[in-house]
Every structure is written in C-alpha cells, then in structure tokens.
Amino acid sequence: MRNKCLFIFMISLVLLSGCMPNQSVEEVAIIQIAGYDLGEDERIRGTVSIPQYGKSEDKASATELYLTVDADSVKDVEKEIKKQSSSPISTGKLAVSLYSREMAEKGLSSIIDVLSRDPRLSRNMYLAVVEGEAGELIKSGYTQEETTSKNVQGLIETNNHHNFPTSSLHDFLYAYYGQGMNPFLPLLKKQETFVELSGIAFFKKGKMVSMIPDSKVFTFKMLKENFSAGMQDLPFREGSIMMDNIGSQVNYKMKGTMDNPSFEINISIKAEVNEMLGLDVTPNPQLANEMEKAFVDYFKKEANELIKMFKEKEIDPLGLGSFAKTRRRDFDLTKWEEHYPELDIDVKVDMEITEYGIFS
Amino acid sequence: MWKWKRKGKQKSSKQQPSNQQSTKQSDTIPKFIQVMSNSEDFVTYTLSGRTKCTISYIKTMCDSKILNRSVLTTLNDNHLHTLHDMQEKIPVEDIQITKDLDVIKEKVMVGYIMLQVRDAKEEVLLIPAVSLEAREVSVPEVEFSVVGPKEAFVETLNTNINLIRKRLPLPQLNIKEMNIGKVTKTRVAIVYIDGIANQDNVDTVTQRLEDIEIDQVTDSSFITQVIADNSNSPFPQLLDTERPDRVTSNLIEGKVAILVDGSPHALTCPTTVVEFFGASDDYFLPWHLATAFRLIRLFAVIFSVLSTPLYVAVLTYHHEMIPAELMATIVSSRSDIPFPPILEVIVLELTIELLREAGARLPTKIGQTIGIVGGIVIGTAAVDAGLTSNVLLIIVALSALASFTTPVYQIGNTIRLIRFPFIIGAQLWGLIGISMCMVFYIGHLIKLQSIGRPFFEPLYPLRLKDLKDSFIRLPFNKQTERPVLMRTGDPQRMNSSRVNAKRDIDE
Amino acid sequence: MNKINNSQGLQIPEKYLVTPAYVFFLVNSMQVGVGILGFEKYLVEKAGFDAWVSILIAGGILHVVLWMIYRLLQKGGGDIVHIHKLVFGKYIGGFLSLLFCAYFTLLAFTVLITFIEVIKVWVFPGLQSWIFGFVLLLLVYYLVSGGFRVITGVCLISVLIGLPILLLKFFPVQAGHTMTIYPVLSHDITEILSASKQSVLSFLGLEFLLIYYPFIKNPKKSKKWAHFAVFYTTMIYLISLLVTFVYYSEEQLKQVVWGTISAWKIVEFPFIERFEFVGIAMWLYVVLPNICLGLWGATRIPKRVFNIKQKYLVIIFCIGFYIPLGFIEGRPVIDAINTFSGQAGFYIILYIPVLLALKIISDKVRKRHEK
C-alpha cells in the first residue's frame, strides 16, 4: 500500500512538473521569411513576416504581419522582434532568408555562423541576395493567395529545378566551409508587381564579389551539376531557336601534377528543340547538326567567359579545388590558390538534339 | 508472473479444506431432500401403484416428456421391486445406481430424476431427464465473415463440442472436463488433439484450471482473466473466438482450446499478439489479398494508437515538422480553439469512447441511431462552437474507425485503452515521450507469456517460419509446417514435397 | 528470474538461454549506440576523408579481439568472473571483475547522459534531466528486471528499427556530391591509425560477451554470428561515414558535432519535414539496449562475485545513475566523460590479449602440476 502511494506520488510529480514549457502551434508567431539590410550606424535592420492564419472559412486569403527592427546582430534581431510581437517567436520554420546586396558585399560571415549553429533551422531553407532593400521586397505583398515567404520559396524552388543551380542553406554551408570551393546564392530583384530571379551572386568566403545575369545561369548550372531541365535560347541564322534540356551531364577530369594542373570539363547535353522562331525550314538531320554546332560554340564561349571571370575574382564556385583535393594526395591549398588564376581549363561540349516536338 | 503461480498455489492449498467442509453440510439423502424441499420447484412423492418407490426431481430442470412417457408408464405398468429391475425396464439411456451423495446431488441439480425404493435406502436410481433450454446455433455476430462458415458457438457446452467434433472426426480429439466455480460448478472442457498438441501446454492449462479458486464462472472471459500469465496486462493472453472453424484450425495447429458451459466463446492458447490481428476471413481469400488486408489492418491499428498522440506531440512541441502546405490548414483550424491540443484530444477521445459505450449498451437499432446522431451532431456542433478543430475531429474519427478493424473484439478494447498513455507521453516529451511509451509496451509484450509460451512471437523470439502466417499470409503450399510456437509433437502439416511437386509443361 | 545458481553461475536454466543467432543482435545493438550519431567529426579531424580506411582497420582489429574473446571463453568455460577466479585467484580476480563492473557501469552511464545531452541540444533545450532521467531509468529498470531474455528482445527490436533509419541515408546521398568519394590516401599511416583507435572506441560493446556468454545456448555456434555482427556494424559505420563524406565537405564536417542528426534534417516527406525529431525519438530504441545491457552486465558481476541478489543491485545502480544526472551538464563535461569511457574501453580491449595469454600460461602450469 505504501509502495502504491509512493508510486502515485511519483507519477503525479512527473506529470505535474515534467511538462516542457510549450506553446501550441497556433499560439506562436512562426517566422517564415526574414530579410536583413544595413541600417544606420553599422546596425542591422531586420524585417520578418509572420503569416496570420484566419479561421477556416477565409483560408484562401493570406495576411501577413511585417515587423522591422534595428539591431546589432542577427540574434539581436530576434530579441528585438520579440519585443514587438504579441506571441512568442518561433524561427523553426524559417524558409527563406534574404540579404541586401550591400550587406552581402560587406560580408555575411557572422550571419552564416548563426545559421549553421542553430539546431532549430532547416537545412532546406533558401538564402538569397536581394538587389535593393530586402525589407522592401518582403513587405510588398504580391498575390492574394500566397504569402511572401511562400511566393519567394516557391520561386527559388521551382527555378532550382530549372535553370538555377541548387542553392539551399546546406549547399551554401558546404561550399562556405569546404576547401577549394566558394559558395553562391541566387539574386532576387523586386519588380513592380512581382519578384524575379535575376542572376547569381558569387561569394568569396562571406563576401559577395561578383554576379552573373540570368542569361548566363544555364551555362553555369551546366558546368556545375547534372540536370535534366532548363531552357536556353540562341540566335540562329535569321531567327532564334529554343532548346529544352532533357539531360545534361558534366564530368571533370584533372591532368598533370599539383605543380602544373590542368582541367578538362566534359559536358554532354541531350536536348529537344521546340521553338524555331523566324526559321522557315523543316527539321532534318543536317539542320540538327548545324544547330548542335551553334549551341556547342555558344556554350564553349560562354563557359570560357565564366571561367575567366572566376579566375579574375579568384573564386571557385565550381569546386575544382575540392575536386583536385580528392584526386591528388599532395594537394596543398595555398599552392592551389596560387596556381588557380593561371589554371588551364578546357571545356568540351557534346550536344545531341534528339527531338523536334510532335509537329514537323 | 512467478509471483502469480506461488500465490495461486498457496491460496489453493489453504482453501481446499473449507471447500470440503461446505459439501458435508447435508450428508444424508433425507437431509438433502429436506434442504431441497425449501424450493417450490422440487417435487418429491411416493408412487403407490404397482411399483412402490419415491420419485424426486426438480420440476424446472426435468423433461416432463421423459418423466411421463418413459418413467411413470414403465413404473406403473410393471412390478418392479429392485433398483436393478427398474434400471433394466425403464427405456431411458444411461441410468445409474449410486450411493455417492455428491453424485446424487450433482445429478439431481442438473435435472436427473431420483428414484428410491424402501429396501435400498442408501442406493438410488438416477434417470437422466435433463431438459436443456438453449439457443439455436446462429450466425456469428462478433466475428462476422462474408464468406466461409456461418456457425457460431452457443451457450451449451455439448452443442459447442458437437460443432467442433463434426469438423474433426478424429479419435485423437481429446476432451477433458472439469467443474470450476465453488458455487456455479460450471462445466469446463479442455479440447486438444492428442499427438499434435504439446503435452506441456495441455498440462499447463489443466494445472491452471485446476488451481482456479473462484466462486462463479459465468463466462469464458472469467477463465481468461484468472489463468492469464500476467493478469495486470491490458493484452488478452488467450484468444477468444465464437467461430468453431477458427477453433478447429487452431486445434489442428496444435493449440489447446477451453470451452466453458454457458459461454458462446472458446478460448485458444497459446496465442500470440499477431494472431489477434488475423481474421478467419484471411484464410478464405487468396493469399495476396489476405496479406494486403492484414497489412491494412496492421496499419490501421498503428494509426489508431499513434495518430492522436502524434497530433499532440507535433502541435505542442515540434511544429517545425509540419510542412508549410499543411501549416495553414492546421493552424487555421485550431486558431479559435481555447484549449491546448492535449485537452482537446482527451475531450474528443472521451467523447468517442462515450459514443461507443452508449452504442454498445443500447439495443442494436437505437445504438445505431445514437452512433450517427452523436457522431454527426456532436461533432459538427463542437467544431462550429470552436471547441475542437476539424482536423482533430477527422483524426479521432478515423482512429476510432481504424480500431474497429481488429477481428478479435478483446484486442479492440486494448487498443482503445492503450492510446491514453501515449497521449500523456506525447504531452510530456513530444515524440520522445511517445517513443518511451512504445518501448514500454514493446518491453511489456516481450515479457508477456501465454501459457508459458512467448506472447510476442514470431517477432521475439524471431521465428522466420512463423512469420509466414503473421503479418502476411503465404499460400497454403508454403505453410507445410505447424507453427514453431506450439512445439507440437508432429510439426509436419502435410507432405511438402508432394505439395510442391513441380510438373513440367504439358505433363 | 533470480533462481540462477549463485555459487556456480555457469549452469543457467535452459529457459533463460537464448539461441546463438541472437548474439548477432546482442553484439550489434551494443556496438551501435549514441556514438554513431556524431562519430564522424572525430575521425575526420584525425584522418580527413581517408577515415574510411580507419573504419576498416578498426573492424579488422575487432574481429581479432572477438576471436580472442571466444578463445578465452571457450577455454575458461564460463564468464569473465570465472576466468578471473581461475587465473588470479579469489581476491585479485574478484577485484579485476569489479573493474569490469565499473567499466560497464561507466559505459551505460555515458550512453545515458549523452542521449540526454542530444535531446537537450536538438529537441528540448529546457529538459529537466532529473525528471526525464527518472522515467527513463524506470523504463530501464522495468526492462532489466525482465532478465536477459527480455534485454535480448529489446536488442532485436532495436536492430530491426535501426534498419529503416538506415534507409534514410538515401536523402543525404541524393543531396550530396558523390564526386568527392575517390580512394586517394593523403594521410600518413599514423594519422589513419589514430583515427582507427578513435573508431574502435565507438565500436565498443563486444566486451559484454564476456559476461553474457553463459546465457547462450550452444555458445560455439554463436561465434559466426558474433563475427557477422561485427562485420555488419563495421558496414553500418562505413556507410554512415561515406554518406557524411558525400553530404558534407571535409572542413564543414570537422565543425558539425552530430553529423548523422544534421543529415536527417534534410529528410522530407509530403506529410512530414525535419526528420531529426523522429530520428532522435527513434534513437531511443537504439540507446535503450545499450543502457539495459550495460546495467545488466554491471550488476551481474557483483552478483557473481559477492552473491548479492541482482534485483537489489539493479535498483542500487539505477539510483546511482540517477543522482549525478542533475549535476552533469554541458558539452565539456559530457565530452570528458565520453573520452574517459572511451579510454577505459581501449584499455579493456588491450587487456583481453593479456588475459588470454595469462590464461594459456596458467593452464599450462596447472597441467604440469597435475603431472
């Protein structure tokens, strides 16, 4: 009997005091998008949006609450926001984190440290650089149906499957901490009524040093990874043609010793041509050959330009250095960095146009 | 469980003498008749026709046809002086002459007619004239199946044994009978196939039944509870079924069945937790369909137990886990609810339990109405009033539905109950709390035994052979051996080489 | 379950024995514990991306150790207490057995606090370990009080549940960079060996054979299962390591404290995201056999040495585990305890060949005496 009493006492003790401090999901302010701009006096201006979910009837319309604060650091932003919010803040569902270009050029290292340390954050979240004010971009709602975070997240996610290379937080951290590679992030730009992906920003350590416009993004992705989507147009003869990538594969090969390395990048693309604007010919194998050649020349030129730019800026977003590291046992980072600007990189493109659509 | 054994033994040894004393209260026939005369339905009178004797019987237990047509006519037509003469002349089977007062009492109580003649005071003649009021064999209601046999056990032991015997015309089918219950003296039969059933199992069952110390056995579930290896467990450790076909196939597998007079359910043992999720329907369907349905059932059970705890855990602690697309749905459905998820869940679960209890207690037709009215009206009203979220309503309703998929009613009750510790665990430490509850139950299942055989078999001990008929059911030609669990004397069901003989094309 | 003959201790009643195949689960589940959640960092710090060689070397070493353990047990015909008594006599032998007891206790305790640490870091920063630990230890007590067979069952379940978690490795591989996997050895042999030592530490758990050996039915047949288990463990560690190599860059991996949990973060299903919460919750199944078997082994030794009832020992040890729980906090302390228990394990592994040698010598001496 005494044992039983003791047991009941213990159980009630556990039940009473064991509960973790908790908030039910509707009671927390879930930050889904956060933007950081440079404020006055070396401070950071953080803007967050908190979606306000209404009752079930008006689920369709999305309302958001925007909060902007000035703070000294990223965690300080969170603290300041807590002052303004009526409910506790949760950063666990943060899906997009934006930085103004000014800030990116000044350096994101301190922010990245926070991002890689916090266990609450998802590794699938997206980072992006904004041309202009990140706060502005967040604050202007775009569509009735979607919140800004969903909109921007969807935008980056869809494009990651197309022309843009994958760029989640994990990919960024991978290149940021890794030796012999440099990270990159998509560039966002706010237009009158919508947001668009306008290119890619390249970083050296935490600092943004260069960018490419969206017309060159396909070439970059082609150099960077295997993918089977994306489109690229090209002026051809008197008109222009649009190619639909159905399978692109890239292969790096390293030759020579560590003192005199050279690279060979082999790309093979399979593509469909679905649009031939201003061309008045029926497709035939010869035309396909011509088109293939035109594309190969175009890609080679573009790729070499990109690589030249990388060498000039001494950045390695392709990760050639880390590739070299896994292939050569005498890899030495300082030596590699010395050699990098004069590195001999040969890009070979092999293109095959397989289909012309269902109409000829 | 060892404590149980020891306690049981101590008790039985202590209480045996008192039991004997009580039977010696009226130790002569006249005294017995005197005691019985207190009841209005006990009739005793002396015949003074050609045969002189005293007839005593219980009016309500005797078949008056036998009494009138066979006994009284014979006695009046003939000159019979000794009991032996009577035994020969009366055209009723199995007439006994005995002095044993215990036998006399027992027989008279169940409806035998007692004849006494003056010469032989001590000896009496017992004529069976038992009138049995029993239900007709009817369609199984608890374990209904669409195809397959439609007979169910009834409340009469003899009929039940008949239902089994007619399916198993074997001389090896053994039936041991005993009377259990200090007051009720209920007939309990142990049924097994000699040579297939393991003798240890039979002995354990017999031993445990003999050791039972209880005043009444009104249903087989009394036996389940009393002889269970761990009576504190929410899991039933003997499988009860109302289908004779299921009992038969269990007997053939080497199990032991227990039948109780007055109960339309048979108990089979040893059993495993997996068996509770198998329906007899499974054997009437092609094996792949049966497998699919079993897996669906398994999923339903897991869903039924874990869905509401997961709801509590995720909404209270881990909202990061909700995908963004679901977030809007869940948050907006919960936005006006004044209670935390745990309270919401407990209230709704209890409501469902209420409905279930109300439905079960009421007559069938009203019960259905209650179910529909209660379910729909209360549900909609609760959501409209903003007391529960409709997401939760769906989850709770689904989990209630899922818990009905278990073919055996007993385990359904267990499932109803065991989700509450999970809910509390979820409130304490989220997913980790659920995990801890799960480990506890798994540990408990590993510890459990059914008649000394592991209850969590074929998972632990892992017996791949027995897995063939557990979560999946392989075709019959793959199941040529009896389950390892039973440790049967004859493991081979059929000749596997002949079953699986391969024939060439066009042969 | 305490009816085992105390004085002999070697004739365990048949119903408490387990079949040889379970040695696979016993060995494997004991080797895979909390260590696997974050062992990558320590290996990569020492040998970079060549650490996979170290894992293979460590696996090989463990096979040798396992062979020695079996040799020892088959010669001694009993458990470690019996062997110690034969070789060193009653007092020294008893003392050495108690050292083993201390080591097992330490191992179980390390696993317990490391798991609580993981929960604190990843799920509930404000977890009150004294309440959580209380419930966890109740659970452990419940399982251990069921005896060795129940613990074996828990081990089995843990291995079975670990299997689907292994399948989740698919996600990081998909998101990773397979190009970085290339067999070039750029570290010298001492670096690789020191990483091997490190990985031997996370492989610890074999030593428990020394105490549960008498519980195996037909122990000679269990040898192949034990070897198979060690091989399987090596493969699990190897795969985990390779997956993290694919998923992280080398320098990044050096900074990620819990490599495997971090890799769970990207697992996503349409109905669930952020799999690390589920993963950590499921890891309870993997961690519990470690604690249970550790506690069982630790309490069985004093039972064999002093003839104390194991029931009481388990309660005493549970309380012993429970009291320091509230005081031990913070990464540095827990890291220190982990390092310490790793070191202890290393010495235990070094001790086994010594014991084997001593056993052989003492056998020879005895034989000569008999002549």
TrEMBL record, chain A:
What is the residue range of the signal peptide feature?
1-24
Gene Ontology cellular-component terms for this entry are: membrane
Per UniProt, subcellular location reads as:
Membrane
User: What biological processes does GO assign it?
Assistant: spore germination
Q: Which InterPro entries match?
A: GerAC_N (IPR057336), Spore_GerAC-like (IPR008844), Spore_GerAC-like_C (IPR046953), Spore_GerAC_C_sf (IPR038501)
Question: What's the protein's topology in the membrane?
Answer: Lipid-anchor
Query: Which domain of life does the UniProt lineage start with?
Result: Bacteria
UniProt keyword list: Germination, Lipoprotein, Membrane, Palmitate, Signal
Pfam families from the entry? Spore_GerAC, Spore_GerAC_N
Domain Spore germination GerAC-like C-terminal positions: 198-357
Concerning its family, UniProt says: Belongs to the GerABKC lipoprotein family.
Q: What is this protein called?
A: Germination protein, Ger(X)C family
Can you name the source organism?
Answer: Halobacillus karajensis
From TrEMBL, chain C:
What InterPro entries does the annotation carry?
A: Spore_GerAB (IPR004761)
The UniProt entry lists membrane topology as:
Multi-pass membrane protein
As for subcellular location, the record says: Membrane
Transmembrane segment boundaries: 21-39, 51-70, 91-116, 122-143, 150-172, 192-213, 225-248, 277-299, 311-328, 340-361
Identify this protein by name. Answer: Spore germination protein B2
Chief place of localization = membrane
Sequence similarity: Belongs to the amino acid-polyamine-organocation (APC) superfamily. Spore germination protein (SGP) (TC 2.A.3.9) family.
* Annotated keywords: Germination, Membrane, Transmembrane, Transmembrane helix, Transport
- Tell me, what is an example of a GO biological process annotation in this record? spore germination
Gene Ontology cellular-component annotations = membrane
- Indicate yes or no for the key word Transmembrane: yes
